[in-house]
Amino acid sequence: MATKQENVSLLEHSKTKPPKLYKVILINDDFTTMEFVIEVLKTFFSMGMERATQVMLKIHNEGSAVCGVYPKDIAETKVTQVSEFAKQHGHPLRCHTEEN
Known about the structure:
Elements: H1 4-13, E1 21-27, H2 34-45, H3 49-62, E2 64-71, H4 72-88, E3 94-99
Antiparallel strand pairs: 1-2, 1-3
Helix pairs in contact: 2-3, 2-4
């Protein structure tokens, strides 16, 4: 049977670090409509209309914007979902991840 001191040292060694976080970034282009970008932000990033409009305008005016910050697997899934959705609707909207 392990002693109390051994249990404490086992717990200290088993602590894990939080996962690295990644930004999901949408990139402006000359063809994707503002309305479609707002739809993407609402659908895939759970933004309300006002916040989605603000982010869309930042993308439009500054060339890109962070839409969310997630662990790597979730960020990559968001990129895949957005890219496939844009392609299905005939838009060249680009999206990528970047380590936070």
